[in-house]
Amino acid sequence: MQIKLISTSDVHGYLAPTDYSRRDRVVPFGLSRAATMIQQLTATDNDQVWPIVIENGDFVQGSPLTYFIARRHQEAAPLYSRLANCNHVQAGVFGNHEFNYGLDFLDLCESSRHYPMLAANIHDDLQRTLFAKPYTILERAGVKVAILGLTTQFVSRWELPRHLTGLHFTDVVETAKAYVPKLHKLADVVVVAYHGGLERDPKTDAPTERLNGENRGSALLAEVPGIDAMITGHQHRRLAVTVHGVPVTQPGMKGANVAMITLDLDDHKQVTKRKPEVFSVKNTAPDDAMMALLAPINTQMENWLDTPLGKINGSMLVHSHLQARLHNHPYLNFINQVEMAATGTDIAATALFNDEVPGLKQHVTMREVMNSYVYPNKLAVETITGADLKQALERCASYFLLVAGKVIVNPEFLKPKLRHYIYDIYSGIDYTFDLTRPIGDRVVQLDYHGTPVQPEQSLTVTLNHYRAGGGGNYPMFGTDKIQRQLSTDMTVLIADYFAEHPVVTATRPTNFKVTY
């Protein structure tokens, strides 16, 4: 028998072939294109060729459409599981972003599913059925395949506590050690579907990121014998490799690719051949049935995106993302203004999340806000010390490297995953980086209200909830330092700001300098 393990991951709500930048925009990715590829890969389906489709998480959050459904049309939330049903998904895994809109919404998203959601390392004190199944066992022609579902254990560090009521996330390696031997007694083939990635280079085994537990795929493969195939995600990588003899795939993001692991079994049900592959969907047409399901809510959303909000005097368009991060930018200054207005603090930080952020045009619509501020962040107010703030700025300063007199982005923030969202720009303080100095000792000026900040000084800052929880390797921040949180998404706060200030003047701040 030949088993085909076909997977999507990190679709992030990019369902139709559009990036929502304009109404008529067509792009070479999206779940509707992936659906056509899945149909091609599953065309042969019999006792000799057995396709199994797995959705590996981060499915219901990330695009303007997902925000529109979550915040304005929750009755449309079952659409997600209906779309997964269209792809004949046989197992689903929770991604970290599945929890962004709360558990009631997540339950609604999965309410029409024909497949189990797998949550081996998620323990629920309230014993909800959504998290009750750690694995599933599928059988065909006398062959049994077990699929174990795992989710990055870092969810609880990033997510708002009220979105995780009763949930506890355990270490994925220890969980797999407990389950994999048991599953081999129950099934012929054991597959791990993990919403997490590889923390080490597949060829050299050298660490490719900080070994903090966010991604544990390499550890799973090294420490847990008996895994026959592993599906990964979270890092948005396009990956088809073999590690310690185990085939591993990761299909990128936004439905740009579909991954497949082919396992050939002999008459004794032993795996004799393993082949990991990733297929681009750019040349496949969107699936008509899926587009028909999307059409009603998509039209409503497009109309909403074109809602005018306000006007900009000057320019908040981002032309060079590196220069904006290096010298500050009116758009970033504006976001910090919104944060400070919402919380009443006079220090705030924000990030230019990726190199696709366009900034805001002169006549601002909801579309531009959603395309520039792409995460459903909420704000948290933290009380920290001057030493904490300096350490955070040193982390920011490590974003840059000076090579032959030229400033580049530190590869740590580029591989294995693009992480521009780790670098913050602050308002309300005056600070200077000297890039000729070693990483960890680059902050040469840090003033608050014209006075040098002292290590023991108490400061109140506004951060997004991801950073406030220490996300992005900021251990100087933490939930124990949060004084209060806002329940309103940043995109709504931006719209509300324009309602109070219909005309906003673009201002390039001068509080931040870089020397090199």
Using brief descriptors, characterize the structure shown.
516 residues; alpha/beta; six-stranded mixed sheet; globular; 2 domains
Overview of the molecule:
The structure is a single chain. With 516 residues, the chain is of the alpha/beta class. It has two domains: 300 residues, Purple Acid Phosphatase, chain A, domain 2; 209 residues, 5'-Nucleotidase, C-terminal domain (5'-nucleotidase,  domain 2), CATH 3.90.780. It has 14 helices and 30 strands. It has a six-stranded mixed sheet with strand order 4-3-2-1-13-14. It has a six-stranded mixed sheet with strand order 6-7-9-10-12-11, covered by helices on one side. A hairpin with a 2-residue loop joins strand 25 and strand 26. Helix 2 packs across helix 8 and helix 10 packs across helix 14. It is globular. It starts with a strand and ends with a strand. The model has no long low-confidence stretch (mean pLDDT 96). Belongs to the 5'-nucleotidase family. Keywords: Hydrolase, Nucleotide-binding, Signal. This is Bifunctional UDP-sugar hydrolase/5'-nucleotidase. GO terms for molecular function: hydrolase activity. Pfam families: 5_nucleotid_C, Metallophos.
